[in-house]
Amino acid sequence: MLLTALGPAVCCIALILGLSACSGGNGDKKERSLTAAEVCDSTLDSSAIAGLKRMGDTQKFTELPGTDDSGEPNKFSLKRAASTIHDDMTQRNQCVVYKTGDTTGHPLIDVDFSAVKYHPNSEKPTADASAELTIYPIGVYAATHGNASASLYFKCPTKDPEGTKPYIQASVHSTADQVSAKATAKDSMDILNSVSRSMAKQLGCASQADLPPTSRCPSRVDGDRIEWARGTAEHPRSARSLTLFASR
User: Fold this and answer.
1) Coil, strand or helix: which one is 11?
2) How far apart are CA 81 and CA 89, in angstroms?
3) Are 112 and 171 in contact (CB under 8 A)?
């Protein structure tokens, strides 16, 4: 009799649990494969598409699945990324790209945008043989740090509660065990420049950003110690951006 009485309740509980199991758990959701032209909200131009394919030595990719703490999709969108440029890094919408089928959990690239008050000055580099730095005449400052990362700053005034921030810092970081030996430093800059042009349009500052359709020829310098522009605030320390050290 007890089992008979509890029967409907047990069935209801089982049904609820079954629905929860089907609808929850972003970790179990398999993201569909994307072409290089589709990643990062379809912002890659032909040079960037070729660069991404070369970096990953593959034709298929996926983006970070699931949702963030606020319930927003982790997948990159220009509109959402533009709305989070003043947020902490952990809260910003970033373009995190993986190679389809990879099981390491390591991204191929991670593109990030943030509003800043300052930018590095590439006019007075000092020697440091620890890594190779290549400067590009793009925006107000652009550089690649070997084949591992790139950083790009462009004019784009935005406001937050602290006041106006005149620049956008864009960065791309790659994971060593995911990058093909075929990759070049220019691949990273082509990708970053392409996504940055779309971001500048989204933010309404394309006319002053000085981001060309293709990455301009770089000039190579020895070292990665760069003097920061006069009158700027303390330099940022971001694990995902090119590491630069301030000369005071």
Assistant:
1) helix
2) 11
3) yes
Q: What gap in Å lies between CA 155 and CA 167, rounded to an integer?
A: 5
Closest CA relative to residue 150, chosen from 193, 181, 182: 193
N residues, the chain: 248
Instruction: Give phi and psi for 52, each to the nearest 5.
Output: -65, -40
Average pLDDT per run of 10 along the chain, which is 248 residues long? 45 39 42 93 97 97 90 93 95 96 96 96 52 88 92 96 94 96 95 98 97 73 41 34 31
Residue 210: which region, alpha, beta or left (left: phi > 0; alpha: psi -120 to 50)?
Answer: left
Q: Residue 99: helix, strand or coil by DSSP?
A: strand
CA distances from 83 to 77, 88, 158, 170, 239 (A): 10, 12, 11, 15, 21
Q: Can you tell me the distance from the alpha carbon of 98 to that of 110, in angstroms, rounded to the nearest whole number?
A: 9
Whose tokens are 């947020």? That residue is 87
In contact, 162 and 113? CB cutoff 8 Å? no
Find the angle CA(129)-CA(227)-CA(242) to the nearest 5 degrees.
60
Closest CA to 81 of 105, 123, 111, 54: 111
pTM, to two decimals: 0.76
CB 185 within 8 A of CB 151: no
Closest CA to 48 of 221, 183, 203, 238: 183
Q: Is 210 exposed, middle or buried (0-12, 13-18, 19+ CB in 10 A)?
A: middle
- Is 111:61 a contact under the CB 8 Å cutoff? no
